Amino acid sequence: MKYLWAPWRMDYILERREEGCLFCRKVTERRDRANLILYRGKYSFVMMNKFPYNNGHLMVVPNRHCLDFETLPRKETAELFDLLNVATQVLRDNLHAQGFNVGINIGKEGGAGEDHLHIHVVPRWAGDTNFMPILGETKIIPQYLEKTCQTLHLGFCNLLKKRVKRKGLNRR
Fold first, then answer.
1. For the chain, where are the alpha helices, taking DSSP H only?
2. CA–CA separation, 72 and 111 (whole Å)
3. Do residues 46 and 39 lie in contact, with contact meaning Cβ atoms separated by under 8 Å?
4. What CATH architecture does domain 35-167 belong to?
5. Which residues belong to the active site?
6. Are 104 and 119 in contact (CB under 8 A)?
7. Where are the domains of the chain?
8. Nearest to 43 by CA among 85, 75, 90
9. DSSP-derived 3-state class of residue 86
10. Residue of 3, 46, 153, 156 with fewest CB within 10 Å of its CB?
């Protein structure tokens, strides 16, 4: 038996679970830094995954509660995928990501929690799969979540300022 000490997990284990949809709650709280929200669009937002698969693991989420793409009007779908594009660019520019795993969680059985669809963006680098996850069954995240959040928030601000000037991307 191998043991990995992670005492910070106790806060997560013992915290009171709030009812309802995590994404709907986070987007209405207006506590972006605490909720790891990096950017708010008119119809969608980008937030970091609190329990990432890799450093810089992001999620692109519709603002309103929705189960699947069929319920999203074209303008909301367009912004969702535009923010996916922006997210990959920010990860390339700021964390020097060389590739990405992108997955869409649709429906509770598809991993979408309380039926709120969202897109995962997991940055990848050459050599990021090493012996630790394979032999040690341990994933190493090389940077504190808060530091990654600061870096990526600044990256979103800078990139989107440029895009707004060039294309007029909708912003709140």
1. 9-14, 22-29, 74-95, 131-135, 145-167
2. 19
3. yes
4. 2-Layer Sandwich (3.30)
5. 118
6. yes
7. 35-167
8. 75
9. helix
10. 3
Q: Is 39 helix (H, G, I), strand (E, B) or coil?
A: strand
Q: Which amino acid is at 65?
A: H
Longest dimension (CA), the chain: 56
pLDDT in tens, 79-137: 999 999 999 999 999 999 999 999 999 887 777 667 899 999 999 988 766 544 444 45
**Pair 68, 82: CB distance under 8 Å:** no
172 Cβ partners below 8 Å, 6+ apart? 40, 41, 42
Token pair listed for 4? 């990995």
Q: What is the pLDDT of residue 123?
A: 93
**Number of residues in the chain:** 172
Structure tokens at 105: 């969680």
Question: Helices (H), strands (E): how many in the chain?
Answer: 5, 5
Structure tokens at 33: 């830094």
